[in-house]
Amino acid sequence: MPNRWKPNVTVAAIIERDGKFMLIEENTADGLRLNNPAGHLDPGESPVAACAREVLEETAYDFTPTGLVGVYLNRFTRTRTGHDITYLRFAFCGTLGEHYPERPLDDGIIGPVWLTLEELRASTERHRSPLVLRCIEDYLAGQRHPIELIHTDASVAQAAR
């Protein structure tokens, strides 16, 4: 099969503190959007390691994933190019650690913002994807799976060398 379908693998962090959720504001082709701290799985990396890395790059906070909230499949068409893209997202909850305010954030990232559930629901037109709210609602419903459910074989790290 020369044109095998391959969804883009992404990770996302669901971070709650004092009844508010950390999101990031980012500049996109569709304007300023809200997203969970999230990004793509890099070669040689486990989903758990990718989530910790993405949170650090987008928020300048350490993050330790402790549970899998869910695995999500989402499809949309890019506004600029018309490309049909599918994402397979692993969403994690965990522990927020040390903040490094001097650390630069990824290109396009304005920074983290803390929103209540009501504020999140009132801002859905600014969400980068429908998964932003869905992952948080699943988290609030108590959906948690052991992080050990995800196994990354040692061959993944070897292939990146």
TrEMBL record:
What EC identifiers does the entry list? 3.6.1.-
Q: Which organism is it from?
A: Giesbergeria anulus
| Keywords per UniProt | Hydrolase, Magnesium
Entry protein name: Phosphatase NudJ
Could you describe the subunit structure of this protein?
Monomer.
Please list the residue ranges annotated as the Nudix hydrolase domain.
4-137
Q: Which InterPro entries match?
A: NUDIX_hydrolase-like_dom_sf, NUDIX_hydrolase_dom, NudJ
Q: Which family does it belong to?
A: Belongs to the Nudix hydrolase family. NudJ subfamily.
| UniProt-listed Gene3D superfamilies | Nucleoside Triphosphate Pyrophosphohydrolase
**Needs which cofactor?**
Mg(2+)
Molecular function terms, GO-annotated: nucleoside diphosphate phosphatase activity; ribonucleoside triphosphate phosphatase activity; thiamine diphosphate phosphatase activity
